[in-house]
Amino acid sequence: MLKADTRTVIGGVDTHQDLHAAAVVDDNGTVLGSDSFSTTRAGYRAMLRWFRSYGDVIRVGVESTGSYGAGLTRHLALAGIPVLEVTGPDRSMRRAKGKDDEIDAIAAAQAARTGQRVQVAKDRSGAVEALRVLRTTRKTAIKCRRATLQQLHNTIVASPDELRDQVRNLTRMQLLRTCASWRPDTLGYRDPVVATRIALKSLAHRILDLNDEVADLDRLIDPLVEELGAKLTQLVGVGTHSAGEFIVTAGDNPDRLRSESSFAKLCGACPIPASSGKIQRHRLNRGGNRQANSALHIIVLSRMRIDPRTKKYVERRLKEGRTKREIMRCLKRYVAREIYHVLVAT
């Protein structure tokens, strides 16, 4: 048996909000120990010391590196330990042995040892992480604004006739400014007309505030995208928001993407065989990062409208008997390849 200071070990962590369950295995998969640590900096340091007490830590498999495991992932990366994100549970092990935190931590360590169900974790300590946080906040603001606009419309449709006639022919901005400028008598809130005025005023103020919030975030996001991916926005059909999505998808360490085919798979743009008998075909991948796939879809639609080269390609493939869906699948794959080479070059 090797001494602790010469043995190489692999760690595994099942992450939670308050406590992380950790396990350590050797090169042969033998479980050496398991324990739990708090989700604080002191807990991260204690976990790292505990790992190293068994030997030289060559890598650690961590679940949920983008949420509960984000702090631990940063701490291990700063300590120079490679972190692999465990992407999913081992269903065969769960059927055979059940599930608890210790079993999940051991499964994470075994996944990191064998290289199955793992991928290199994103580096979340740079400017790309700042861009991700700002873009996520903007997306939620857009979603809230859309829901509020729908509620505003529905409230007007069902409002009393005397109130609906005042606003039904206004443009959106006129409607928002008109409703926001109302001064209804709140003492009469039992009257449906007054209550509707109060509701419309509140909804209009909410939408205007969200407009300002989105504009403020755009003033921060646009320079970051230009700084991190100026070459991306120079590509045909790639706007600021699409470029930002690809930058965030790649992360601060795009070198973790081994090839352009792996990036295409990450974006859900790799073809999946769907052949049977004499019919040889592929279908669109429904997996991968759906936000990145949506960005690819928008770029392809733009190029089909404005790019002469893409128009010629579509015409040629239509003559060959391809459907529009199959053509768009091919175009997504080509765009993913182009995006990848720009990302790794920056």
Can you put this structure into words, describing what you see?
By secondary structure, the protein is an alpha/beta fold. It has 3 domains: 8-120, Nucleotidyltransferase, domain 5 (2-Layer Sandwich), CATH 3.30.420; 127-229, no CATH class; 232-345, no CATH class. Helix content is 57%, strand content 12%. The chain has 13 helices and 8 strands. The strands form 2 sheets. Strands 3-2-1-4-5-6 form a 6-stranded mixed beta sheet. A two-stranded antiparallel ribbon has the order 7-8. Helix 2 (70-78) links the parallel strand 4 (56-63) and strand 5 (83-86). Helix 5 (127-157) packs across helix 9 (240-250). The two termini are 47 Å apart. The model has no long low-confidence stretch (mean pLDDT 93).
Low-confidence stretches: none
Mean pLDDT: 93
Main β-sheet: number of strands, strand sense, barrel status?
Answer: 6 strands, mixed
What is the percentage of strand-forming residues? Answer: 5-15%
What is the count of β-strands? 8
Q: What is the chain-wise order of helices and strands?
A: EEEHEHEHHEHHHHHHEEHHH
Count of spatially separate domains: 3
Give the end-to-end Cα distance, rounded to a whole number of Å.
Answer: 47 Å
Percent helix, as a range, is 55-70%
Keywords:
3 domains; 346 residues; two-stranded antiparallel ribbon; alpha/beta; Nucleotidyltransferase, domain 5
Question: Helices and strands in order, then pairings?
Answer:
Blueprint: E1 8-14, E2 19-26, E3 31-38, H1 41-52, E4 56-63, H2 70-78, E5 83-86, H3 91-97, H4 101-114, E6 118-120, H5 127-157, H6 161-167, H7 172-181, H8 192-229, H9 240-250, H10 260-266, E7 272-273, E8 282-283, H11 290-306, H12 308-319, H13 324-345
Parallel strand pairs: 1-4, 4-5
Antiparallel strand pairs: 1-2, 2-3, 5-6, 7-8
Helix pairs in contact: 1-2, 5-8, 5-9, 7-8, 8-9, 9-11, 10-13, 11-12, 11-13
